Amino acid sequence: MAVSNVGSAVSSWAANSSVSSAFADSVCLFVNGEYVEIRPGADIEPSTTLLEFLRRRRLTGTKLGCGVGGCGACTTVLATWKPDRGGCREASTTVGATENGHVQYRAINSCLTPVLAVNGAHVITIEGLGTTDSPHALQQAFVRHHATQCGFCTPGFIMSLYGTLRTSGWKPRVSDCESSFDGNLCRCTGYRPILDAAKCIAQDFEECAATGANAVAASSSPPQAWTEKGDVAIVTTTSHSKRSEHGMEDLLMRQEAIDTSSPTLVFPEVLKRRPPVPIMFSHPSCSWRWYAPTTLTSMLELAAWLPAFRIYNGNTDFLQEVRRGVELDAIVSALHVPELRGVQKTGSEVSIGLAEPLTDVVDALRLLCADGSGSEGRDSFDRESWAGAAEVAKVLSSFGSKQIRNWCGLGSLLLRSDVVPVLAAAGCRVIVQRLSDPTGEKAMVQLQTQKELQNKPVGSETRSHGKITADQARFCTQRLAGSKASAGPLGGPDLTVTERVVPLLGLEFGAGEVALRLLLPKTRPGSVIRSYRGRLRRDGAYSVASAAMRLDLEGPESPPIVTGAEFMLHDVGPGRRTMVFPSATAVLLGKPLPVPELTRHEALKKFVEEVEALEPTAATAHGFYRKALAASFFLDLLRGLNSDHSFGVPRPLSSGMQRYEDLRHGGMHACPDHRPLSDTAPRSPVGQPVIHTSAIEQSTGEAVYVDDLPVPSDCLWAAHVASPYPKAKIHGIDFSAAVRVPGVHGYFDYRDLITRVQEKHIPVNNAYKIFTTGLATAVGHTVGITVAETPELAKKAAALVKVDWEQLDPVLTVHDAVEKQSLIPYNHVIEQGDVDGILAQCREEGRIVEGTLELGGQEHFYLEPHAVMAVPGEGGEMTIYTATQCVHKTQKTVASALGVPCSKVVVKCKRMGGAFGGKEVLSTFIAGRLAIAAKRLRRSVRMVLDRKEDMEISGQRHPFFAKFCCGFDCDGRVLGYAVDCFTNGGHTTSITKDIMDRALGHAHNAYHIANFRAKGVCCDTNWYSFTAFRGFGAPQAMLVIETAMEMVAAKLGRSVEAVRLLNLMPPGGCTPYGQVVEHNILKPMWETLWRDADVDARLKAVDDFNRRSEPHRKRGLCVLPTKYGVNFPAKFLNQAGAFVCVYQQDATVLVCHAGTEMGQGLNIKLAQIAANALGCDLQKVHVGETSSDKVPNASPTAASVGSDLNGMAVLDACEQLAARLKPYRQQGEGPESWVCAVQAAYMDRVSLFAEGFYAMPNCGEYDWNLDTTDNSKRGKMYCYHSFGVCCAEVEVDLRTGEWSCQRADVLMDVGHSLNPAIDIGQIEGAFVQGMGLYTLEELHWAARDVPWAQPGTLVTTSPHTYKIPAASDVPCDFRVSLWAGTPNPRAVHSSKAVGEPPTFLSAAVFFAIKRAICAANGTAFESMDSPATAERIRAAFADDVVRELSRQLGEFRHQTLC
Predict the structure, then answer these.
(1) Is residue 270 within a helix (H) or strand (E), and if so which, with residue range?
(2) Is 570 strand, coil or helix?
(3) How many whole angstroms from its chain centre is CA 92?
(4) Which of 349, 1157, 1298, 1396 is catalytic?
(5) Cα 1061 to Cα 1453: distance, rounded to the nearest angstrom
(6) Low-confidence ranges of the chain (pLDDT < 70)
(7) What is the pTM of this model?
(8) Using CA atoms, how far apart are residues 170 and 162, in angstroms rounded to an integer?
(9) Crossing angle for the helix pair 137-144 and 192-199, to the nearest 10 degrees
(10) 979, 1041 in Cβ contact below 8 A?
(11) In the annotation, is 1396 catalytic?
């Protein structure tokens, strides 16, 4: 790679780029205004992505999140010069339009884009947008709106928004801003602050004032309502009010002028003058070449000459094909061939270039359909003639994500994508061309000779795979030169072009053929075309079912008669063909429209028979759901043209409101005895909504994560050798072939463990092993690692390690485990009262409900995958850089593995890109593996898991299966409740027992139940071990009791909200585990939310809507409470240390603590505590990275006690320093006094550093094994409890299972908040993550009926197959309030934990969906397992489609979730 300054190199490049037939062998582009030239011999291969290229240049703000274009962390903006070609799109509507062309800005996925494909473009990354010293307005908007938490996804969001800003000419609408993020995922924030930050740049921003919560807040109390004392205010902020609060108006006005002059953002003039240059690029290690011709002639000749090639039209599957090892001679890019670009209207057809990005195609078609642009005259324009084009635009506009649509052309979608049905229904045809030789002269003979040479087997004497001989290269150059110079027809004097126009469904390619353009005709008079798509998530999701229907109608009379019908459904099977249904559509011929009911029923029967014959249900994922969707789509038009043809639920513009207490004095504590300070003690900056400590660094891409660390010059990379089977014996390992590969430095397994010789366990509880020995007990169970010069080479070597396996019979589910008694020893029970007696009495009186419930697991899907680097030092020292929640556990594991003292191992963690419990365990053992290799090789060793492997082996939330029985009185008061909870622990014990303990402790949720029993059963299976996740078992158990409450209400005919209120824990009430609930505010919180959320009126409005609406469109509303116990279950973990230094030079403060920052705002809260205790400005306080050599023996950052423990430890250290400095602060308390005091103390030789320590009292004392029936004698289970209440309202389209949360009101108790902005962000993030748990997110392990994967293999291993909530899934109207006036005396400065307690409240969405289903089916209760996916919702809707499918195919049966 060579980099030159803009100047002579650019001038030379521009001068040499005149139209030439010769292929250039270098690629030239600009990156953030800097000219870059990639020459042969560099470390760039044809398959190198733009993301890899940027990160090698240390532009690490662009992140690798998933590698498949599904998360948006890799988003960059591509600026290109687009010549005007005329046609449907008017150049004057585009930014930067001139006479000859315009600059086009597009956000793209850099992880999917080959760097060679951006030849001649200007790449803008987050670093080019702005820096911490000079941030861009968008970056400042994200900072000021608290729109960043872990920050890993933040650059991608900002770049997506920047693409929208530039595409719109600095005049985006609110709807444009909200839709900018359909290809971006965030796991932390809940998206609400991101949407707020985005909307503040909208031209029509003021329209937000009338939307949802904004309108309510604007018409109510002022933003701050102070008490008479002037020390407390209730602050209300909204999505609308923040723009002026944060001063964004002036900032945005100035930014446009800055962007038009910034050297990193201005489009280079030289790119406007430079025509495209044909490129041929190769690399010695790559078996194929990259060609980028600039003429159709060149492309056709390459197609004729190359035996195995792919045309690149911006294909998103490009890298997948390469990684699968598809045999290729070349990739031929069509991006710069004019004949494959542009959209033109010619007569009665629209001609679409197959390399034209989908975004431009959609814009052109919409312009055409809106006003007939390009037609003979707008006065004569008939929109019905282009109805098919409108349907095509609708489908293309929802394909993939905006980043994909901005780059991908139609050429890659013609044969096997889900857009084919609508294209076929619209009558599209494809222009295909190839070179032919009608005279039989030597040109084609020569071409054929070359093809035969290329087709010879690898290793043949006449063929060197992937290399082109000198004669071949000379021939190719001569042919291209001859064709270019010829004045004759395309192909030169001795070759001609053969063209054929093929109907789309009949498209098959012959040798040397290339598809050029798609012809989209006008819709025939009398024809009606409809397109349909059903997906598991609103945005950024592949279709589960994609279909289109065309009806030909005849007759002026009403109703019209069906004379032709065609229904097409995209097949998701291996063939990816488009299916047609002649028998079902034949039934419709000659029938009037609307089609009579009996005919519809007959057509439905035929359709189900045909679809099952074409695609058996067992052969595809979501088979029942696909058929239900397809049948619903099929019946749609048959009900008439005037019926409601819209599928799904429309989503309005989002809004949000946040309300919190601004307390200026009081509620402060001293450490370590929690002694309350005076009510006049000032709180600031504690309690203020201060921004995240790293917000600006995260927004500018300067925040450093483990994978962003500079790679040491001697660094090696490691890859896992893992079991492909769920259970198998290992009889032998042969790694000889792997270590013979040049560049491979070794293979390591259990034989390299020092502790195996010493017979030590790793760790103490032997929950995991660094390497397995003779038995693998899960797919992904680590056998060893290979270490090599590059990550690709390490993976290649890992594939060469041969393991002699003997497969054994696995245990895969809870039900299998119970049947085979494959259980983890566990005997904990919580029981009080006479449970069996009460339940027997209730059973006799008929007042009992019983049931079962399955709850699926959940993938953490933190955006930053696991990343670890081990760096060896002298004398056995080892430094570990890692993304972990458990620094101390990592240190212990590495020390044990190496056989060295812990004092020689230093573990560092600056920050994590999300964790949620998923980085508690696996990271420690990856560190152990790398440390072994690093010590042996005396070189640094690094590993970054790809998304697939991370999801396979990091563990997920524990799935649960529950059996419950509930007895009650005639009012609905629960008299007795018994529940048996079964959980799938996976292949090791890990922390499953602790998970079950918390589940049992929360099985009663927020209710008082005098007679209660909760038992747990932990199952040992051959799925990879499940692990900690936000809530730690409580969200699973609480869902069971709430299901029982629903059943009680249904049986009594009462409102479930009334039953919940009746059973709420009263003040002074006692839990089943014998602990009195202190400061119980559940009932006042319930009443306050009921009033503020206007629940009575909304319940009536929901009933009115359901009476008026279509049978398939219903609403539901649910109000739900929660009570959550806080502390670690093990007493010894409830401790923390801190180290605080004050530097005399400038009186700045360094805070080191035992927690880890993963986006939850721990660092800023500790900085606020320190600044308050020391009496200095917050800007003086810096929080350093977590490191085991600064604060030892750190407990995991988990259980929501990070602030409780570390906050008190920091307070302890700061109080010691404050006491030492007090004699020097007699002159005042201001900033100058602080500096003077520090310097004076230093001169007096007073220590300016202190260590703090805190041990949480009265917690983790519960004795499960004590022989007593009085649970209060067992000790306190939790230090304190947090409370919350939520009201959620949803609207559901039961034909597709799609739903939208119309409004969510959350009222959460966080005591006196340390930082209300951070706490509200945690509540919103927890709510949306929990919403995913209960509705969208479904893990799928292959079972014996899945032929394409080993049983026990996780098949949902990417954002394509596993769907977390996107920005368009969050509540449309999202209101979060913090309960005011109730301090918590048991945590630092009267605060409470906030990370986990709100998670369960999102179950209100789950129950609201069930209420909507009840409204549709006319039932009082619907049984449904969690998650309530679109598939389950559709199957629960008892309409004609489901009844017919059930009759012919059997009842809907979902894969077991646990």
Answers:
(1) helix 269-273
(2) strand
(3) 37
(4) 1396
(5) 35
(6) 1-21, 85-99, 217-231, 246, 253, 371-383, 437-495, 556-557, 572-576, 617-621, 643-645, 755-768, 1227-1231, 1344-1347, 1454-1455, 1457
(7) 0.93
(8) 9
(9) 140
(10) yes
(11) yes
